[in-house]
Amino acid sequence: MDILKFITAGSVDDGKSTLIGRLLYDSEAILVDQLEALHASNRKNDDGSIDLAILTDGLKAEREQGITIDVAYKYFETDKRKFIIADAPGHIQYTRNMVTGASNAGLAIILIDARKGVIEQTTRHSFLVSLLQIQQVVVAVNKMDMVDYSEDVFNSIVADYKVLAGKVGLKNVTYIPVSALKGDNIVYPSAKISWYTGDSLLTHLENVELEIDDTSAHARLPVQWVVRPQTDELHDYRGYAGRVSSGSFKVNDKVTVLPSGFSSTISKIEFYDKTPEEAIAGMSVTVHLTDNIDISRGDIIVNSAGQPQLSNLIEADLCWMDTRPLDTTLTYLVQHNTKTIRCKISEVLYKVNINTLEKDHAEDFKLNDIGRIVIKTAEPLAFDPYQLNKANGGAIIIDSRTNVTVGALILRQAVD
Amino acid sequence: MSKYRLDYLDELEAEAIYILREVAGQFEKPALLFSGGKDSITLVHLAMKAFRPGKFPFPLVHIDTGHNFEETITYRDEMVARIGEKLIIGHVQDSINEGKVIEQKGKNASRNALQTVTLLDTIAKHKFDACIGGARRDEEKARAKERIFSVRDEFGQWDPKRQRPELWNIYNGKIHKGENVRVFPISNWTELDVWNYIRRENIPLPTIYFAHQRDCITRNGQLMAASPFLNMDADDKIESKNVRFRTVGDMTCTAAVESYAFEIDDIIHEIASSKISERGARMDDKVSEAAMEDRKKGGYF
């Protein structure tokens, strides 16, 4: 059994929290004491039924205001799969939270209100899903009960969305008509939508296939920690501990250590009491090399046959996440894999209006702004373009005055 | 590219090991908070996988309320001897003796709330900059929103509205002097995941997790272990029951469940078909809808 992490993009008005509540409720992932708390709560729907949205609103301020401020994680499982839901807020002022939730998701559910169709916020959410390169997309056309379960309404929204998907470059899109409030097509198929022959949302989530990049040439291992017991019997033991971020390593593979550029060969892969022949993306292991070379945290071990780009001047998309605007004169920190070094945003190329997708000339870069910049780093970064290798193409910006994470970087290409 | 093929327990394990190694790499004086419960026992097992054949780059820290299940302390001491790592104990009794906290009175008196002060004092005394804990997001809805690296201010407080964005698997552990970070490597595990992992890895547990005969009293609809630490009066009727515990905490606030689960397979079966969540057996969460959020803001685990 594997795990599917997915994000839901939409706002409270679209019934996003109700959709998640419905998934949990109908798949019987809610336990009795939680259910009692739910029934005891004062918040009810207009018709007196329990408000399933309460299940995902965790913080006091959220319950008071009836909105979702931060990403909440929810867990449930069926016989086929385990699920982690990142429930992210949909309002524009919480774009950074959605980017956060989207960064780890394998699938995104984009909610559209059947009465409203494709609107500005759908564009914004789709742009973000595309920017973060979530593998699979489900467009859930919700509130079908409010449009008499009309096939025409659904088809017209699908046609509109296909245009948008083409514009933002989304592939692997599945369309499902649902009513979260009434429970149609969430877990169980609905007789009211008999014209729809596809899977219910849950059935789709259970069966959709995700891919992993285990190409040996894309092998990347950021070194987190050097294991050196320095005991009498293990005097010469030197293991490089880390999690394979992409590709696969095998014993006897020729590897290069970056940024130094030294080459060596993998002599052994260790995992506690085991010595596997291969380590694929996602595995945390300890690697041994045939040569005694200087390697420490922040270095990355890669397959010699498929090396990443190495540069200290990189074009990247930036999502700004702090209330203080970007200051291009300031020195920030960039954290990429296990390496944290000084940097400057040397140039802002343009900003994207994420509601219309138009590129604007930018003088400033404020909270929730997204656009293309050039970053200059104190040492070269060994990165892959995000569009080719997500795992080695993301980085964060830290404000060294506050230590807060202020930006997400999607690395695109080295500047010559 | 090929079809995704990591089993869920392997993926959760690899993620937790990655997080533990990030702590080792990013902090100068980390610590692992060890309660004797199954979640922190799982953390110790994961730390073995992360750092062996080397030593742990951090000590274990136990905040001892003094109201322990004896089985937990026996287990703790045996485990520490077996793995050969350092254990630091912070005693709530010391905080009481020093006048920093006052023992609660009355029937529902518990030292659970007092241990926050002892924890913060222990962190300050040893200058810990990161504390690894076994909290999981499926336990409670305030926890569902907490980051894996959760920054606490000088007073140990969690500010849910000012959490740092946490992207991909990049954890920002930069802090100012006096602040510290609580780190939760098994955030993404559920109760059932922990049990399935314990079974797969053959991890030994304190005996109170398994069904046994015990003298109990019923209070506020829950079964509590009769002990000298529980303020009892004539109304409390002691009955011998077949019980086990789903969490291991202070004896005065950890309720038992009636159970005949003698083996780990029985427990997994029981939980999979159970209809009461794990923290539903913790009286400390029953106070209000925001009980956990308020305690976390105050510096609780």
From TrEMBL, chain A:
<dbReference type="InterPro" id="IPR011779">
    <property type="entry name" value="SO4_adenylTrfase_lsu"/>
</dbReference>
<dbReference type="InterPro" id="IPR050100">
    <property type="entry name" value="TRAFAC_GTPase_members"/>
</dbReference>
<dbReference type="GO" id="GO:0003924">
    <property type="term" value="F:GTPase activity"/>
</dbReference>
<dbReference type="GO" id="GO:0006790">
    <property type="term" value="P:sulfur compound metabolic process"/>
</dbReference>
<dbReference type="GO" id="GO:0005525">
    <property type="term" value="F:GTP binding"/>
</dbReference>
<keyword id="KW-0548">Nucleotidyltransferase</keyword>
<dbReference type="GO" id="GO:0004781">
    <property type="term" value="F:sulfate adenylyltransferase (ATP) activity"/>
</dbReference>
<feature type="domain" description="Tr-type G">
    <location>
        <begin position="1"/>
        <end position="215"/>
    </location>
</feature>
<dbReference type="InterPro" id="IPR041757">
    <property type="entry name" value="CysN_GTP-bd"/>
</dbReference>
<keyword id="KW-0808">Transferase</keyword>
<dbReference type="InterPro" id="IPR031157">
    <property type="entry name" value="G_TR_CS"/>
</dbReference>
<dbReference type="InterPro" id="IPR054696">
    <property type="entry name" value="GTP-eEF1A_C"/>
</dbReference>
<dbReference type="Pfam" id="PF22594">
    <property type="entry name" value="GTP-eEF1A_C"/>
</dbReference>
<keyword id="KW-0067">ATP-binding</keyword>
<keyword id="KW-0547">Nucleotide-binding</keyword>
<dbReference type="GO" id="GO:0005524">
    <property type="term" value="F:ATP binding"/>
</dbReference>
<dbReference type="InterPro" id="IPR000795">
    <property type="entry name" value="T_Tr_GTP-bd_dom"/>
</dbReference>
<dbReference type="InterPro" id="IPR027417">
    <property type="entry name" value="P-loop_NTPase"/>
</dbReference>
<protein>
    <recommendedName>
        <fullName>sulfate adenylyltransferase</fullName>
        <ecNumber>2.7.7.4</ecNumber>
    </recommendedName>
</protein>
<keyword id="KW-0342">GTP-binding</keyword>
<dbReference type="InterPro" id="IPR044138">
    <property type="entry name" value="CysN_II"/>
</dbReference>
<dbReference type="Pfam" id="PF00009">
    <property type="entry name" value="GTP_EFTU"/>
</dbReference>
From TrEMBL, chain B:
<dbReference type="GO" id="GO:0000103">
    <property type="term" value="P:sulfate assimilation"/>
</dbReference>
<dbReference type="Pfam" id="PF01507">
    <property type="entry name" value="PAPS_reduct"/>
</dbReference>
<protein>
    <recommendedName>
        <fullName>Sulfate adenylyltransferase subunit 2</fullName>
        <ecNumber>2.7.7.4</ecNumber>
    </recommendedName>
</protein>
<dbReference type="InterPro" id="IPR011784">
    <property type="entry name" value="SO4_adenylTrfase_ssu"/>
</dbReference>
<keyword id="KW-0808">Transferase</keyword>
<keyword id="KW-0547">Nucleotide-binding</keyword>
<dbReference type="GO" id="GO:0005524">
    <property type="term" value="F:ATP binding"/>
</dbReference>
<comment type="similarity">
    <text>Belongs to the PAPS reductase family. CysD subfamily.</text>
</comment>
<feature type="domain" description="Phosphoadenosine phosphosulphate reductase">
    <location>
        <begin position="30"/>
        <end position="255"/>
    </location>
</feature>
<keyword id="KW-0067">ATP-binding</keyword>
<keyword id="KW-0548">Nucleotidyltransferase</keyword>
<dbReference type="InterPro" id="IPR002500">
    <property type="entry name" value="PAPS_reduct_dom"/>
</dbReference>
<dbReference type="InterPro" id="IPR014729">
    <property type="entry name" value="Rossmann-like_a/b/a_fold"/>
</dbReference>
<dbReference type="InterPro" id="IPR050128">
    <property type="entry name" value="Sulfate_adenylyltrnsfr_sub2"/>
</dbReference>
<dbReference type="GO" id="GO:0004781">
    <property type="term" value="F:sulfate adenylyltransferase (ATP) activity"/>
</dbReference>
